[in-house]
């Protein structure tokens, strides 16, 4: 690891200015991903600006409806927050399905959203990787790619975005609040990420020095139900092979609204808009759910070792929707 | 780039000089000679380095020491009183919840943190109803302790030990039964 | 001396004597020795799988403040012996596998060493490499030269004409031991002596190897606490050589080599991959008439090591026609090594899956099938068994686990149970010595044995207490140091049998020499007695493994909520630690069955998933109700202490029991490990 400067930020404006001033500076949140990558040599910042003590560490109900989640809030505390558990179970479940207790105690909301892929070739400096070293090639495309993307990949990169939290936030239509060197702005979570296409080196559309200070969740309707289902090889403490976040309203046996996002199968947290289209207004039946899943997965381009992800994701989408619809019926 | 920092480690105030690159784990093990927390992977993937940082369990390999200036660190060596072991430690010995012992100090700290989290009502991945309270049954313990890998496979002993401790903390009746 | 006369320690569930040290973190492992200004080593590894180092530039690294030096083949001390290619560290420019050590950076802190390592420029002349184990038909397979390979001559004919038969191919992948404590050595060269604090399963074995390698006479190896090994710490590996070389290059300074978790996937051994073709045939009564186990294993050009997966087929079942054949593919892989129950563990997977299939073909309960084919003597040697209680294990287990006729029949549900047998040889390694010294209050029992988590600190003290006829408290056991009398290594489940026999003999001789009231300082050193029954009997521990499996109907996720192992392993010295070892073996078996797979990328020649995020071992949540128990077994032949060893038999049979249960649950027969959800997706 190369030497670096460290600065503990005392206010957000100063933190943003400090990072913006140095091209080799980065924000330091919980560190669970950045410190890991610094040890591997994947990240080599010359300066870290520690933002963990900035006062963005709470969940607050917003006067206009919905809640605001602080960007420095630890994953464990967010998952345990009564407002989140009551109104956004998909979010609590996604957080609790991620990592381990001791990692969730470190990891922050903002840091989680900006974590980078766990592609083993990306993390190994001795193998080519376009995301780490543009133009060097993608080792995963024709290598060991069981964990890789079947959606949103390109000939340059098929690395999966690893966050569970981001998948839930995508399904919730959450908005990321950014403090910026220029104008502060808000960005829907699904617009935060960019597909690899011909430049996988940038995962997001953030400018250098932009800091996630909060995530806004729209008001939860009392008529919707939500759930997060994560499928993995190990029963715990493993990244998703496939995950489904769904926020659904069913009334009188008909799907009134559905927002679905997929994890573990795509290069970005994947909004399943095609599936949503099929669902909207359709009868809440197994056939509909299957048709919705198939519609979304039609675009899937499996690789040598991950063809199973298509059937797995289809089945998982159907199972989650079936459970949510059944819960709806049970409560009705 | 050396920085002087203060840490409270197992109750004692320590002032030390660390390179910014030094993780909390390395500061403890190499700089201070506190080798209770172990290095099993150095990447947050095994839990052997778990300590209580300001009361919360964390992987000490993934945080820089300089970022913890002023913090309180408790290791598995800081929770017993001489020969008088912490109930978690006592239960682990009784249920043989370890073999080689390398993951064990991390298991101890993780367990203590986990019990506090459960007491605070924090849910887990296997908690059926997110709105209800927590009953720390074996399934809950297994899930909550899954961040601590054990290659010897002492999990059944660990779970039995922690279930016993959890019962002791929550069910007063158990104590009375034992006395009767 | 009031205690003399008691002999009631063995057989009691004494709590681990090293327990308090371990739960507080005060047991010091190899890398935790307090040293004054040690040098930290960073191992630079080759990035090609075959070829040679054409140039290596170290000046830039050496200029970094805090760097003491960079060792390469140009400046490293010469080894006295370069016979073992695995240990030939920095002795030539040849690269034999990806990840081989090509340079060692030494600095006053670990991060400076790592920083400087990034500045070392290594160029290679690359040759073509091959790391892939081909299928069984490949011409790249060569005979592995295993003495116990057998061919009775009529296997094919008997198979062709049999009523029931199976012809299946089972595979097991490359796997890595991955003890939680990464291999580590702290080496100091001073005054003509090399001192090594090393994480090893045998201090004396390590000393012998190091003395030969370095041509030294004074080597001390110290290793009182070892954070697991499972075979990988049985014999030294390249990082230890690097530590020794660095220590000799910097006399007087302690050199710390701690292998990183990632490096554990190249530098300290692995279990080779196997492709096993099994052709089994039975007559109308379910009696085996032909058993053929044809094994292809991955081997390395740098180490003479063959995974003898055919071993179980030599022991388990009576069959008039038998063929066991090992072939290997010599590949550009790092050196393999022992991993818990080498040979038996992967071999029993193939055999017990095939037996399950043949039992079904015969329409028989798989337990009945095993009873029908129980041999009277060891099929391979013809020797009588010193004791063999496999059938009792199966019967006791069936009763306790709730085995019934319905349970083994293939269901269309998602839930099933399965069974498999276990066996592991009862080894005793000769050559250990023990010294007993009366210190006025207690008996100091000295032997260079190891406790790698097995419980030696406790169980061996119990044996010593009973042999001396004193309370356990009166025994002061000393192990893990070559300053103590020479002992065999903790391997092949031979430890307690070998050391226990030695300590027992020493106690007997001590009493003969010094009586029941010895003077202060009375001392006796003895060696392990020869077992008169060695070679007269076939000696094995046996067991029966039962597993319950649930498979999610939607996702195919496979879980093992319940397991039971019933073992026959001779005398159980300490039920508490014995249960832990057996359960621990079974849990590693769950891990093997469901998770473990070192995925090779043939283009680069490396293991891609080389960390704990990629190489999954079972987490707590993967493990359900796992229970181990045993049947009483008194074996008068196996050795003087009646101990068979339990470190390995617990993993044998666990994976096939799970695979057989998964079949019972889903009707999907998976013959390739690990069993992952993709096999069960519909």
From TrEMBL, chain A:
Pfam families in the record: CO_deh_flav_C, FAD_binding_5
Record InterPro entries: CO_DH_flav_C, CO_DH_flav_C_dom_sf, Diverse_Substr_Oxidored, FAD-bd_PCMH, FAD-bd_PCMH-like_sf, FAD-bd_PCMH_sub1, FAD-bd_PCMH_sub2, Mopterin_DH_FAD-bd
Keywords: Oxidoreductase
Keyword Signal annotated: no
GO molecular function, one term: FAD binding
Domain FAD-binding PCMH-type intervals: 1-222
SUPFAM superfamilies: CO dehydrogenase flavoprotein C-terminal domain-like, FAD-binding/transporter-associated domain-like
Domain of life: Bacteria
Protein's name in the database: Xanthine dehydrogenase family protein subunit M
From TrEMBL, chain B:
Pfam family, one: Fer2_2
UniProt superkingdom: Bacteria
UniProt-listed InterPro entries: 2Fe-2S-bd (IPR002888), 2Fe-2S-bd_dom_sf (IPR036884), 2Fe-2S_ferredoxin-like_sf (IPR036010), 2Fe-2S_ferredoxin-type (IPR001041), 2Fe2S_fd_BS (IPR006058), Aldehyde_Oxdr_Iron-Sulfur (IPR052914), Beta-grasp_dom_sf (IPR012675)
Alphabetized UniProt keyword annotations: 2Fe-2S, Iron, Iron-sulfur, Metal-binding, Oxidoreductase
Gene3D superfamilies: 3.10.20.30, [2Fe-2S]-binding domain
Record SUPFAM superfamilies: 2Fe-2S ferredoxin-like (SSF54292), CO dehydrogenase ISP C-domain like (SSF47741)
Molecular function terms from GO: 2 iron, 2 sulfur cluster binding; metal ion binding; oxidoreductase activity, acting on the aldehyde or oxo group of donors
Domain 2Fe-2S ferredoxin-type: 3-79
CDD domains for this protein: fer2 (cd00207)
Functional pathway: Alkaloid degradation; nicotine degradation
Protein name (record): 2Fe-2S iron-sulfur cluster binding domain-containing protein
TrEMBL record, chain C:
The keyword Oxidoreductase appears for this protein: yes
Region described as Disordered: 511-532
InterPro entries for the chain: Ald_Oxase/Xan_DH_a/b, Ald_Oxase/Xan_DH_a/b_sf, Ald_Oxase/xanthine_DH-like, AldOxase/xan_DH_MoCoBD1, AldOxase/xan_DH_MoCoBD2, AldOxase/xan_DH_Mopterin-bd_sf
GO molecular function terms noted in the UniProt entry: iron ion binding; oxidoreductase activity
Key word Oxidoreductase present: yes
Entry keyword set: Molybdenum, Oxidoreductase
Domain Aldehyde oxidase/xanthine dehydrogenase a/b hammerhead: 24-128
Pfam families reported for this sequence: Ald_Xan_dh_C, MoCoBD_1, MoCoBD_2
SUPFAM superfamilies, A to Z: CO dehydrogenase molybdoprotein N-domain-like, Molybdenum cofactor-binding domain
Matching PANTHER family: ALDEHYDE OXIDASE 1-RELATED, XANTHINE DEHYDROGENASE
Entry protein name: Molybdopterin-dependent oxidoreductase
Organism: Allosaccharopolyspora coralli
Classification of source organism: Bacteria, Bacillati, Actinomycetota, Actinomycetes, Pseudonocardiales
């Amino acid at each position: 690891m190369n030497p670096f400067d460290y600065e503990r930020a005392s206010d957000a404006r100063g933190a943003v200015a400090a990072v913006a001033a140095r091209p080799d500076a980065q924000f330091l949140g919980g560190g669970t991903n950045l410190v890991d990558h610094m040890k591997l040599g994947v990240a080599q910042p010359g300066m870290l600006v520690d933002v963990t003590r900035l006062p963005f560490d709470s969940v607050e109900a917003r006067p206009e409806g919905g809640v605001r989640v602080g960007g420095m809030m630890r994953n464990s505390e967010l998952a345990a927050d009564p407002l989140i558990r009551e109104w956004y179970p998909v979010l609590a479940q996604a957080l609790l399905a991620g990592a381990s207790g001791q990692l969730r105690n470190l990891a922050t909301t903002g840091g989680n959203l900006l974590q980078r892929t766990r592609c083993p070739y990306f993390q190994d400096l001795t193998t080519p990787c376009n995301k780490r070293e543009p133009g060097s090639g993608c080792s995963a495309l024709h290598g060991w790619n069981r964990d890789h993307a079947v959606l949103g990949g390109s000939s340059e990169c098929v690395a999966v975005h690893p966050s569970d939290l981001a998948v839930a936030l995508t399904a919730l239509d959450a908005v990321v609040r950014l403090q910026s060197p220029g104008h502060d702005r808000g960005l829907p979570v699904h617009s935060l990420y960019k597909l690899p296409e011909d430049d996988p080196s940038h995962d997001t559309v953030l400018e250098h020095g932009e800091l996630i200070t909060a995530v806004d969740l729209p008001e939860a309707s009392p008529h919707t139900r939500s759930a997060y289902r994560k499928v993995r090889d190990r029963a715990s403490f493993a990244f998703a092979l496939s995950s489904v976040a769904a926020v659904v309203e069913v009334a009188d046996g008909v799907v009134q609204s559905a927002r679905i996002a997929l994890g573990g199968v795509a290069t970005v947290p994947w909004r399943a808009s095609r599936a949503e289209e099929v669902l909207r207004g359709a009868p809440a039946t197994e056939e509909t759910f299957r048709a919705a899943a198939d519609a979304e997965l039609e675009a899937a381009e499996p690789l040598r070792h991950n063809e199973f992800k298509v059937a797995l994701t289809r089945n998982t989408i159907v199972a989650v929707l079936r459970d949510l619809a059944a819960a709806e019926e049970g409560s009705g | 780039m050396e920085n002087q920092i203060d840490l409270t480690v197992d109750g004692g105030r320590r002032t030390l000089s660390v390179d910014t690159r030094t993780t909390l784990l390395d500061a403890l093990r190499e700089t201070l000679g506190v080798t209770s927390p172990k290095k099993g992977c150095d990447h947050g993937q095994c839990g052997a380095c778990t300590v209580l940082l300001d009361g919360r369990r964390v992987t000490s390999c993934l945080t820089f020491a300089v970022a913890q200036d002023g913090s309180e660190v408790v290791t598995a060596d800081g929770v017993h009183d001489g020969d008088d072991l912490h109930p978690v430690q006592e239960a682990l010995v009784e249920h043989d919840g370890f073999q080689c012992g390398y993951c064990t100090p991390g298991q101890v700290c993780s367990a203590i943190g986990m019990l506090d989290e459960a007491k605070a009502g924090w849910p887990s991945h296997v908690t059926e109803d997110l709105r209800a309270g927590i009953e720390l049954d074996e399934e809950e313990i297994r899930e909550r302790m899954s961040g601590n890998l054990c290659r010897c496979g002492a999990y059944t002993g660990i779970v039995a030990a922690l279930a016993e401790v959890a019962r002791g903390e929550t069910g007063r009746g158990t104590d009375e039964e034992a006395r009767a | 001396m009031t205690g003399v006369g008691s002999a009631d320690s063995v057989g009691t569930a004494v709590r681990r004597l090293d327990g308090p040290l371990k739960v507080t973190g005060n047991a010091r492992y190899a890398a935790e020795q307090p040293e004054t200004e040690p040098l930290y080593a960073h191992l630079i590894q080759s990035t090609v799988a075959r070829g040679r180092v054409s140039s290596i530039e170290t000046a830039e690294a050496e200029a970094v403040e805090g760097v003491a030096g960079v060792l390469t083949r140009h400046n490293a001390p010469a080894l006295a012996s370069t016979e073992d290619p695995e240990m030939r560290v920095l002795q030539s420019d040849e690269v034999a596998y990806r990840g081989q050590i090509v340079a060692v950076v030494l600095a006053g802190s670990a991060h400076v060493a790592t920083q400087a390592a990034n500045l070392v420029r290594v160029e290679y002349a690359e040759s073509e490499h091959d790391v892939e184990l081909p299928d069984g038909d490949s011409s790249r397979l060569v005979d592995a030269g295993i003495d116990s390979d057998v061919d009775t001559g009529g296997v094919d004919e008997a198979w062709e004409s049999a009523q029931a038969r199976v012809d299946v191919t089972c595979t097991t992948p490359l796997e890595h031991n991955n003890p939680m404590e990464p291999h580590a050595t702290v080496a100091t060269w001073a005054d003509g002596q090399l001192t090594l604090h090393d994480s090893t399963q045998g201090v004396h074995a390590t000393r012998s190897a190091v003395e030969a390698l370095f041509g030294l006479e004074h080597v001390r190896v110290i290793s009182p606490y070892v954070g697991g090994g499972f075979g990988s710490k049985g014999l030294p590996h390249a990082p230890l050589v690097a530590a020794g070389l660095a220590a000799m290059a910097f006399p007087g300074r302690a050199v710390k080599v701690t292998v990183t978790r990632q490096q554990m996937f190249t530098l300290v051994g692995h279990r080779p991959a196997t492709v096993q073709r099994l052709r089994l045939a039975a007559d109308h009564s379910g009696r085996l008439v032909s058993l053929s186990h044809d094994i292809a294993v991955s081997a390395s050009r740098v180490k003479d090591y063959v995974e003898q997966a055919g071993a179980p087929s030599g022991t388990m079942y009576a069959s008039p026609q038998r063929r066991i054949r090992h072939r290997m593919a010599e590949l550009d892989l790092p050196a393999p090594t022992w991993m818990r129950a080498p040979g038996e563990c992967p071999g029993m997977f193939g055999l017990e899956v095939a037996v399950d299939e043949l039992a079904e073909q015969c329409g028989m309960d798989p337990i009945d099938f095993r009873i029908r084919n129980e041999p009277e003597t060891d099929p391979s040697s013809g020797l009588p068994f010193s004791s063999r209680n496999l059938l009792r294990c199966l019967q006791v287990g069936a009763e306790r686990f709730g085995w019934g006729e319905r349970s083994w029949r293939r269901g269309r549900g998602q839930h099933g149970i399965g069974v498999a047998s276990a066996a592991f040889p009862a080894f005793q390694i000769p050559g250990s010595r023990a010294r007993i010294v009366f210190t006025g209050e207690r008996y100091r029992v000295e032997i260079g044995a190891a406790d790698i988590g097995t419980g030696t600190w406790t169980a061996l003290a119990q044996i010593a207490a009973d042999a001396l006829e004193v309370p356990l408290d009166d025994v002061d056991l000393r192990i893990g140091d070559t300053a103590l009398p020479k002992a065999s290594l903790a391997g092949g489940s031979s430890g307690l049998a070998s050391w226990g026999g030695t300590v027992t003999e020493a106690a007997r001789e001590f009493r003969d020499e010094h009586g029941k009231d010895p003077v202060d300082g009375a001392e006796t050193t003895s060696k392990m007695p020869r077992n008169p029954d060695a070679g007269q009997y076939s000696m094995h521990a046996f067991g029966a493994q039962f597993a319950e499996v649930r498979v999610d109907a939607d996702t195919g996720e496979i879980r093992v909520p319940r397991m039971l192992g019933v073992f026959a392993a001779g005398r159980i010295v300490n039920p508490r630690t014995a249960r832990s070892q057996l359960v621990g073996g079974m849990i590693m078996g769950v891990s093997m069955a469901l998770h473990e797979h070192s995925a090779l990328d043939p283009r680069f020649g490396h293991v891609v998933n080389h960390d704990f995020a990629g190489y999954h071992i079972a987490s707590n949540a993967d493990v359900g109700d796992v229970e181990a128990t045993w049947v009483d077994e008194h074996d008068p032949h196996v050795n003087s202490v009646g101990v068979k060893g339990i470190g390995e038999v617990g993993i044998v049979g666990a994976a096939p029991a799970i695979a057989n249960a998964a079949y019972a649950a889903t009707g999907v027969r998976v013959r390739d490990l690990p069993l992952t959800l993709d096999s069960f997706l519909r």
